[in-house]
Amino acid sequence: MSGPNVSVIFVCIWSTVAPDCNLREPESTYNVRLRYGLKVKIKALEQFYAENEDYGFKIHDSLSGSLYDHAINFKADFDILGEKNSLQKVAIQPTVEKYKWSDGETRYTMKAVKSFIKTEDDGKINWSPNGGAMCAVVNKDEKNPYGETQDTESYQVTSGVAYLTVKDSSITGNASHHTTHHLYVTRQKDNETYAAGAYNSLTSEDPQVDFNKYFNGESLDQEEIVVWFNLGMHHMPHTGDLPNTVFSTAHSSMLIEPMNYLLGDPSQASSQQVLIKTTDGKPEITRYGAKEATCPVDMAQLNPDLSSYSNSVSVMKCPFDGSKPDRARSIMQRWTWKISES
């Protein structure tokens, strides 16, 4: 994603922690919005296990739906008006105050508490309950005409975010330290490309990439920084998940948009506006060249051709089978989506 003097590059890594399982990849979508906003969203399917009622519901005669977590890690490399940036946290907190105008009476209200993440020692962050915090990548050296820093802001949104519930997992060991929090910030380094490696699952105690080693106390004040964030969900399958879990039940997303960056609402520049004035009670409508949308659809073009369909193949992706090296990519599936090279 790019805008005036702003660029973002995304990298995505998917992790799932559960017992022996069949996994199917989640679907990732990126919704670009009018105000240079970007909503990153994932949707996932589910899996089943037998004889483990203590870890889920009994969903059929001999099946129980086993509880498990998905955590999909995204790397977002922001450059806001240059490469030297900082991460600001704005917490919305209740407060008790006395003001000059309150005649000595106590007022119960709320306020914005602003702080900066100074070093990588504080670079592991969880979202606050009740959506009570936001994070912003800012350039302290660049101000808008009103004296505020020009930022790109990250919001927790209502469709839920999650990291892995299991602490010190016996399965993943040191291979999944990128799944312990909602959000991370580190210094940008060319040799710290990914949060996990494709072969982390082979040597989980000494993995190809140990994300914990990225956090070594370096300054994050006006440096080239990188934000890593997790989307995901906790899922306990129920009877409605047989035979398939529909996408609508497993969503997770986060909204990224400018804050104090644009000097006004950019939708005002859109031609899709209508001005209505009334004269003697009668409307005068100015459309500015806008046309009402039409969408004729030939449904025949949308019907799939199933005549060439053949039997599908079911592939066990974990546990790792050493005789089939292709399965080494099972636990840590990697996608790279480069939005901008600016």
UniProtKB/TrEMBL annotation:
Which keywords accompany this UniProt record?
Copper, Metal-binding, Oxidoreductase, Signal, TPQ
The UniProt record lists the EC number as 1.4.3.-
The parts of the chain that form a coiled coil are none
Query: The Copper amine oxidase catalytic domain covers which part of the protein?
Result: 49-267
Q: Which GO terms describe its molecular function?
A: copper ion binding; primary methylamine oxidase activity; quinone binding
Asked if Signal is a keyword of the record, the answer is yes
Q: Which GO terms describe its biological process?
A: amine metabolic process
Q: Where is the signal peptide?
A: 1-19
Provide GO CC annotations from the record: plasma membrane
Alphabetical list of InterPro entries matching this protein: Cu_amine_oxidase, Cu_amine_oxidase_C, Cu_amine_oxidase_C_sf
What the entry lists under Gene3D superfamilies is as follows: Copper amine oxidase, catalytic domain
Give the record's family classification. Belongs to the copper/topaquinone oxidase family.
Name it: Amine oxidase
